[in-house]
Amino acid sequence: MKATALLALACLCTVAAHAQNPPATARRPAGAPANPRDLSGKWLRTTPFQTYSNVKGGANEFQNDIVAGRKPDLNRDTGLKYSEPVFTSAGKAAFDHNIPSYGLRITAPKDGNDPQGNCDPWGVPRMLNGQVAGPHAGWSILQTAGKFIQFSGWHHDYREVWTDGRKLPSLDEAEPRWNGYSVGHWEANTLVIESVGFDDRTWLDHNGYPHSDQMRLTERYRLVDADTLELTMTIVDPEYYAQPFESDVKRFRRDRENEKAFDEQIYCVPSEEQRFNRLIRDAGVGKVEK
Amino acid sequence: MHRVGRVSALIALIAAAVVPVAAHHGTSITYEVNKTITLTGVVSEFVYGYPHPQVYFDVTDESGKVQRWGSEFGPTPLMMRNMNVGWSRTTIKPGDKITITCALHKTPGATACLAREIHINGALVALNGDQAKQVAAVARPQ
Amino acid sequence: MANTTRRRQIATRLVTAAALTIAVVATSGQHVGAQGRGGQGAQGGGLLGRVGRGNPEDALKSSDADKRPYNKKDFNGLWARNPQAYGLSPCPECGDPGPWPGYGYHGTPPPRTPEGEKRFQANKPGRGLELDSEDAKRRTDLDIGMRRAVLPAFGNDPEGRCEPLGLARLIAFSGGGATMEMTHSQANDRILQRFEWTWDNREIWLDGRRIPNIDDYLPRYNGYSTARWDGDTLVVTSAGFDDRQWLDQYGYPISEKAVLEERWERPSPNRLRVQMTLTDPALYTAPWKSSVKVWTLIPKEKMSVSGWSGILEDRCVPSDESLFNQFRDHAAGLKK
């Protein structure tokens, strides 16, 4: 699925209200949340990394140079702090096998192997990174007693987090799921989610960082104020990473204007995707299509 | 050099300020962001949908040979609506005359490009906020 | 027991489908005999009313023995139309006649407009009686939609390519346990419905909003839904349907101009039911009421695999499906 082009529309952070929505509320500094344990709402990424973690190239900061055919100066000061994971040899091999359309290894999608191009699910944590720009740079949460459902508008996908006290299943018994199995509990006002049982065909992010099916993911969510949510993640995956692999500190702002918008139902429709690729991205060469 | 259409192809080198911000999936890597072409043709299809809206149009050269081109837009429909640039599914229709300036696909001979500016039946249709202002300025009574 | 049954269900789907080079269940003989409960349903349940457990009158009688008080407007829970898959007692009113003719929109299809007929003919389902078979010719009591199946390899059911099923088809469902979950938001401004097959979801808005102007919003597979209470019945109105979807597995078409109404009720503690009405004058010359679909409430512990309860992540994933389709197409004799 191709991400939205934001380009010269960066000024359009303010989204006009839909005809069907309540009028946009006037902006004022957000105070403390009414309920620090209610994460319901629509959340858009504000921190720069669109990857799982703060890897070099993860904020598209060298994109313009690369696509123009210029060799980027990877040591220039971008204002960002970086960290790279430590791969095992199996992890490095998996990383090398993945050919992404983002980051320092950016390749045209037709020459890459990003599973999203086939409309395969993103999986978790990829669907949490906010990789798509603009009004789709995030996800929403529906929180009820016993569970928390997190939706990605892009791809029309969702995952369940169970807060009903159940334990994670044993990997011997549970078949891998694209979005894994997740349970959550509160530690003070931080929601801690633990997940296992991931299908290893998904990528951690659009820069092609891999994970094995033994990955154990921990996410920590907390409301910084009524309109700001902070997320940090840790991956323990000794098959691919020699040390626990930490994400950057991600922040999301509440998208009040669109919280009650109709879901756009942005399915990745295989026939649409394939046609788009065939006729445009893969460069249909001059044929007159009947 | 790829020759097309009755209208002479304008290859313009545009200053680097063309794609300032976040790259979009595979878009910038697929196209020559600093080189554009201007084409005139007749619309055969408008796909106002995902992953990106696309317009397909037939360009006829001097010898009468027809080539079908396809061009994608960056923004998806929600953004276009939010930007108040006035798009809907019927903004472009089969049979409309289109003049389009777009960034060429990197594959030589490809008849696919990334839209930068579109005129339908002589009128600019905005692809971004700046162009929307231009359109609004034209529409305002003198 | 329930665990292994669930697992087997999913594995069985793949194995059965793979082994099935003919997607048609041509065993009509036994079904005719077993069914005739007769009687016309409230809206001319008619042809299918005679075919068996889809009799609308049966659907309105609940076999639920639980008489405890409950909240009629609370639809929260895990619901399935085949409770035996979870080790529960049968619910005779819960299933469409099935496995054959199977889960469909049912009711009595009204005559189609010329455009409706054109689109109907273009859709080539893989389910139902095989086109031009003796059974298909004989069973004129069934609508032609259910008597024209071709091998999926020669058909064009979007389900086979993992395209979204669309709302009416998700509700009618295409086989198996027909399992879904309903969740009311805490603010009670919406109900979320999630479907096990395809892992799809849809929202029903309860905040009184109107259906959007379809030129502003793209037609989408599940349309846009808004609802109000009519006594204890939730009346849902949806519009803005992407017309690439099929109304059900038999390939009835639906247009972008269609309006679908669903009337949901919880007639007893363990039963949820819905009847749909499709108004689509572009394709059908009259409104079309579906048969009544009934679900039974499945306790969490019964819908569990390895201690993990909830709907399964039973997705249609293109790379999985394309491998399967190669096998299927090869078995159908298509060259690769």
Describe the protein's architecture and organization.
The complex is a heterotrimer of chains A (290), B (142) and C (336). Chain A is mainly β and 290 residues long. Chain A has one domain (2-21, 37-284). Helix content of chain A is 9%, strand content 22%. Chain A has three helices and ten strands; from the N terminus they run E-H-H-E-E-E-E-E-E-E-E-E-H. Chain A has helices at 63-67, 89-97, 270-281; strands spanning 41-45, 138-144, 147-152, 157-162, 181-187, 190-196, 216-225, 228-236, 245-246, 250-254. In chain A, strands 1, 2, 3, 4, 5, 6, 7, 8, 9 and 10 form a ten-stranded antiparallel β-sheet that branches. Chain A is globular. Chain B has 142 residues and is mainly beta. Chain B has a single domain, classed as Beta Barrel (OB fold (Dihydrolipoamide Acetyltransferase, E2P)). Chain B has helices spanning 27-30, 77-82, 129-139; strands at residues 12-13, 31-47, 54-60, 66-72, 97-105, 112-120, 123-125. Chain B has a five-stranded mixed barrel. The termini of chain B are far apart. Chain C has 336 residues and is α+β, with helices and mostly antiparallel strands. Chain C is built from eight helices and twelve strands. The longest helix of chain C has 18 residues, at 2-19. Chain C is globular and about 55 Å long. Mean pLDDT of chain C is 80; it is low at 1-54. The interface between A and B is large, with 54 and 49 residues.
Features:
heterotrimer; B: 142 residues; mainly beta; OB fold (Dihydrolipoamide Acetyltransferase, E2P); five-stranded mixed beta barrel; 15% helix; 38% strand; globular; disordered N terminus; C: 336 residues; alpha+beta; ten-stranded antiparallel sheet; two-stranded antiparallel ribbon; 12 strands; 20% strand
Largest sheet of chain B: 5 strands, mixed, barrel
Q: Categorize the overall geometry of chain B.
A: globular
SSE series of chain A: EHHEEEEEEEEEH
Query: How helix-rich are the residues of chain A, as a percent range?
Result: under 10%
Number of strand segments of chain B: 7
Mean pLDDT of chain A: 87
Order of helices and strands of chain B: EHEEEHEEEH
Number-wise, the strands of chain A total 10
Count of separate DSSP helical elements of chain A: 3
CATH architecture of chain B: Beta Barrel
Radius of gyration of chain B: 15 Å
Radius of gyration of chain A, CA atoms, in whole angstroms? 19 Å
